[in-house]
Structures are given as structure tokens and as C-alpha cells.
Amino acid sequence: MSTKQSLIIVLRLVFVLCSLYFIRDAFHEWDGYSYYMHFSNFLPDVSLTFVICAVFSLIAGLFLWSVMYGLSKVTSRIIHSVNLGYFMLWFSTVVFFLFAVLIKKTLLGHIDTIELINYKNPIILFLGGILIIAVVSVLNKYGDKIVQSLNARLTPLVWIFGFMFVIAVPLSFMKQGFFEAHASVESDTSTHALNHGDKANKLAPLKTKERLPNIILIVMDALTAQDMHLFGYERQTTPFITEWAKNAVVFNRAYASSNWTTPATMSLMTGQRVWTHRVWHQAIFHPVRDYQDNLPSVLSKYGYDVYGFVQNRYAHPETLGIKNAFSLVDNQEIFKIQSSWWFDHISDLFASRPVVRRWIFKENRFAKLIDSYEPDLLQTKYPPELVYNRFLDAISKRFQHQDSTQEKSFFAWLHLLPPHQPYLPDKTHIGRFGNGEEFNTAHKQHEIGSFHRTYDSAKQEKIDIIRKRYDEFILYSDEQFKLFLDRLSEIIDMSNTIVILSSDHGESFTHNFLGHSGPHLFEPLVHIPLIVRLPGERLSGPIDVPVEQIDVAPTILELAGLPIPDWMEGRSLVPFFELNQGISHPVYSMQLDKNRSIGEPITKATIAVWEGDYKLIYYTKDSKTMLFNLRSDSKENHDISDENPKIVQRLLNLIRDDLSLANKKILKSLDSKYISAY
Question: Beta strands 614-619 and 606-611: pairing type?
Fold first, then answer.
């Protein structure tokens, strides 16, 4: 076998195997993305991923051939019977074995390859040794013929995958929505406005000469009220917030609209429940297009300067399709400390193609193997002060260039990633609550392997230690919040400024679930802080009525003296501010990510409803219900469904009726204009 022939065979073999593995992976990826995007949106990214895989296979093949060629030259001087063809066949055998290991979930079910490698049964080992001797004998005698036969059988696949590569190259340069954009002219109305008619976007003019208040909405990601001292938690996690809240309106029972960032934040920004705005998918991979019915848009139309400084890409205005409503919004990448890890720098080149970035650099086995060698992270890459400082800098420059007599009011949404996992405050906070040497780095925390999933009860002791790191992260965030307000008071007039502190969702360390998202809606996952600090010294007792995340947007509008549009489903909480005059009504939270965002009604869901002291959780998949009395069982340890069938049925009927109404609206809106918005 000539040197040129051997090179071509290796390149062809690696190219075909990588292509086969890519196709298997592509079907798996599409199975997930098909829930919220059309194939025409997926096609450019799958094409670019295939191009990258093909190029990688050629580079890998060239490297492997070079190694084999060098080994054959060295070895042939010692053992004359060993030539390049011998290495070629062994290489082919090893490559096929590795290929089988990579797709073990398909070919071998859930057999653990590590267990196979460590298998020590003497009979099996003996038979394996006999098999290896037989293989070596065959290779020595028929090696060249086998390689040539293999090469001939690869030819049809090489032509097929080569043709795919040629087609994929131009497709990879197209952007998501290219085919839809050229198929029809899209309406510039938002998805929700289609359901309500043109009047949904018509706002009554504001007839007032009074200066509108500045409003700052601060969202601390994954901050559960269950771990805040302000709400009765035993650890002193929020000393400043607890003191600051004494002159604020505190809602003791505020609930997130969902248990993870994107749908919850969309509800926060629109005043709509998740089953209405229908953004329950991972929109970073397929951003919503121009969702016009949103709080920042209303404020902007009434003369507000609107700022968005968001540290979590899952909540970024561009992801949610509301970027156009902001006067100033920064890319979330500027709010992190840049990594020195070379693999991250390559990954950042594909920041504008998140599907490709995730596929190539995050979720495949090669990427995970490389990332396992990344230097350990000792402190968060997303310190909250980066967001605070950016906002303070923007406000300072704003006032320097504005005449005080023409000064416009502003609304600022500051979304901080801490205390989101990994729980890594600075070194001065690690160990404040004990066990400082445990789970104090990113690698150590990931080793537990249970984030955003269920865990075995045997791990609870370790989970409790990780919770200490989380609580220390909250304490760190509390101190940074204090420093921010101190600096803010030096720059702006706080006598005309409203500060609202909340979260997008909670975080769980109980009920055998760690982190957030997932199928459950227990209190740690959805019980969030909601604190409204009005100008001046105003005393207000805590409010114990259940309220909803969708109530924040209409509350902000009423505080600003602005009308509330009819497409907002939330209600203003201002009546609660004075003498608790608000009226209690049912409150919802929901997890809907198992449903398709386009073309189908909601059938797979977890929905929770709160009414008074009672909370019902309904799992539609198996029609399971859980009822809790939160006044007597705040930790949700005792399901009282069997003892209270009438309450269960009443709350269940409430959920089913409202879900049915939401599905009717979904089915009514299934036209081309609606679907194109996704």
C-alpha cells in the first residue's frame, strides 16, 4: 500500500464515521429544537455544524495518519514484517470500536462502558485474550485485503456525505428565518396583539405635567425567598435587605410565573402568564421576534428612557424579542469576567450562533472531555458589580449631558446572575456558614452531578453543604446591593425614585431536587422576594396575600401614573400599599417546556395554584395532584389531598378551566402570522 493510498483511506474513514455520528446527533438535536422552531430555522445551524465536523474530521484524520506513518517507519526498522498497512488495519479496528462506544446509547442501550473496561471475570478475560490472538493472526495474513475492501465499501458513503458538505456550505451562511422572511411579508404586530386586535397597542395619552418617577427594577437570578432572613430563614443571609425593607412594602407571598428564567422573565416584562405569551422554550437558541406587548415599550411611549442591563442571556431583551423597546441595552457578554481558557475563546467566535456553539463546544463528548481540563473556577465570572457599575456610569453620563429642566425620567431593569449556580462569592464569604473547604469551587460543585435534576436522599448531607455556598452567595449579593444603593444616592435624586427588588425564580435544596427548572413547583422553586421601596420614609407592614409575578408590570405602571393596557393579565398591587385594601385572588405558576410552542395546545404541564392558605400542584401527565396548607405546613411535607377532596376538586377545576381557556386562545391564534413570530 502506497503512502498516498493510506492517507486517502484514513481521511475517508474518519470523514465517514464523523458524518455518521453527526447524523445520529442531528436527529437527536432536532427532536428537541422542533418543539419551538421550524426546520427552516434549524437548517442554517445544522449545516454550519456539519461543515465544522467535516473540517474537524479531515484535520483529525491527517493527524492520525501522521502518527501511524511515523510509527510504521520507526517500527519497521525493528520488526520488518510490520508495515503501514498493518497499522492501518489496527487503526480501523480501534476507530470502529471508539465509534461504537460513542453511540453506545443507541447500539448498547445503557451499558456502562467503564464497567466493561473494568470487567474482571477470568473466563471472559481468557476468551477475550483468545479473540485478540485470532484477530492478530487474521490481520497479519489478510491485512491489506481487508483495508482495500473496506475502502471500496466506503466510496458510496464518501460521495453522499461529500455532496451534503457541498450543499451545507452555502446554507451555513444563512440566518434563522431566512426562508420565512423571503416567503412572506411579516406583520409587525406582536403575537399577543393578534389575539386582541389593534386596540391592544393603542395607549391613551397621558395628561399630566408632573414629573414621572424614576423606577429601578433589580432582579437577582435564582434568589428564593426561602433562603432570605427577611422572610424567616434562620441564617443571616440578607442583613442589609432586611433593614432596608423596613421602610418598604414587602410581599411575603410573591410567586414566580415559572421555575426557570426565560418564561418567568417574559411574564415579568409583559404582565402575562406563560400560557399566554408562550415563551416557555430555550429562546436563546431561537429568540422571539419583536414581541411588542411589553412593559418597557409602554414606558418608552410615555417618555421614559428605558435601560436594560441583563447579565443572564436567557433573560436578555434580545432573547425575549423586546430589545427594540429599550433606549440602551448592552450585550450580556460585557457583564462577565472574560475566561482565559483557550477553548472558551474559540467558543466565543460562535456567540452569534448559539445552537452551533452549544452543539460543538458544550454538549458533545469531545467538548466535555476538553472542558474537564479547564482550570477550576474559584469565584463567579458574573460579579453583580459589573452590572451596577455599568448602570451608574450610564446614569452619570446621562445627567452630565442633560439640562435638569428637561430631564427625562428613566426605567432601569438590572438583572444580576448571582446567586445563580455555581455558588461562588468572593473568598471573604466562602465558609461564613461553615464547611468552607467543601464545594468551594465550580468543579467541586459540579462533581455532585445533580444540578437541575432529582437526587437520591443519601446525598442530602452534601446538598446541605452546597446550600451553605448558596447562602453565602446571597450574603455577598446583599452587600453588593448595599454598595450600589449608597453610590446611587450620590448620583440621582432618590426622592423621586422607586426601587423594586425581586427575582425571576427560586432555587431548591429539598424535595430531592437541586437547582431550578424541572417538573416541580415546590415553594423553594417559585417563592420569590418582592419588595417595593417608595421615596421617603414610609412604614408598611408585610403583606401576606399571595401575589403573582405578572402583577409587577401593572404595579409599575400605576406607580408611574400610567394606564394599564388590557393585554396585561396581572393586576396592580398598589391598593395593598395603603391599609391592605387589595383583594386576594388565585395565583398561578407553571412549567410548560414539554409542550411544543407552535402548532399545538398545552397537554403536558405542571401547574400550581395558590388560594388563601392552600396550594394545589397538578401534574397533567399522570393526573397527579398534591395539596398543601402552607400556614400549617410551610415546607410542604404533608400532602393533604385525601383529607380535603372538595378543596382539591375546586382548585383543580380552576386550573382546568383556565387552561382550557388558554388553549382555546392558542388554537384560535394558529395562523401564519402567529407562527412566524417564533
Answer: antiparallel
Classify 626 in phi/psi space as left (phi over 0), alpha (psi -120 to 50) or beta: beta
> Residue 311: which of 419, 392, 394 has the closest Cα?
419
Kindly state whether residue 27 falls inside one of the protein's structural domains: yes
Q: What is the dihedral of CA 635, 641, 644, 650, to 10 degrees?
A: 100
In angstroms, the CA 390 to CA 386 distance is 6
Residues 135 and 243 in one domain: no
> Domain range holding 359?
341-374
Please say whether the beta carbons of 638 and 627 come within 8 A. no
Q: Is the peptide bond before 419 cis (omega within 30 degrees of 0)?
A: yes
In a domain, 286, yes or no: no
DSSP state of 287: -
Q: For the stretch 410-449, what's the b/e string if a residue is b when 16 or more beta carbons lie within 10 angstroms of its beta carbon?
A: bbbbbbbbbbbbbbbbeeebbebbeebeebbbbeebbeee
Please list the residues that pair with 500 across neighbouring strands: 217, 532
- Into how many domains does the chain fold? 4
Nearest C-alpha neighbor of 50 from the set 30, 70, 77? 30
Give phi and psi for 454, each to the nearest 5.
-75, 155
* pLDDT value, residue 166: 94
Please enumerate in sequence order all residues whose Cβ is within 8 A of that of 205, keeping only pairs 6 or more positions apart, or say none: none
Give CB contacts under 8 A, 24+ apart, made by 603-609: 605/659, 606/519, 606/520, 606/521, 607/521, 607/655, 607/659, 608/255, 608/521, 608/526, 609/651, 609/654, 609/655
pLDDT tens-digit readout, 59-113: 988 888 787 777 766 666 655 555 555 555 556 556 655 555 555 544 444 444 4
Residue-wise burial string across 89-122, b where 16 or more C-beta atoms lie within 10 A, e elsewhere: bbbbeebeeebeebeeeeeeeeeeeeeeeeeeee
pLDDT in tens, 484-533: 999 999 999 899 999 999 999 999 999 999 999 999 999 999 999 999 99
40 and 158 inside one domain: yes
Distance CA 627, CA 616 (A): 5
Asked whether the beta carbons of 500 and 218 are under 8 A apart, the reply is: yes
pTM of the model as a whole? 0.85
Report the distance separating Cα 127 and Cα 142, nearest Å.
22
Q: How far apart are CA 549 and CA 587, in angstroms?
A: 9
DSSP per residue, 339-357: P--HHHHHHHTTTT-HHHH
- The per-residue pLDDT for range 287-337, each reduced to its tens digit, is 998 999 999 999 999 999 999 999 999 999 999 999 999 999 998 889 999
31 and 161 fall within a common domain: yes
Tell me which H or E stretch contains 310: strand 305-310
Q: Is residue 651 part of a domain?
A: yes
Q: Which of 333, 324, 278 is nearest to 301 (CA)?
A: 324
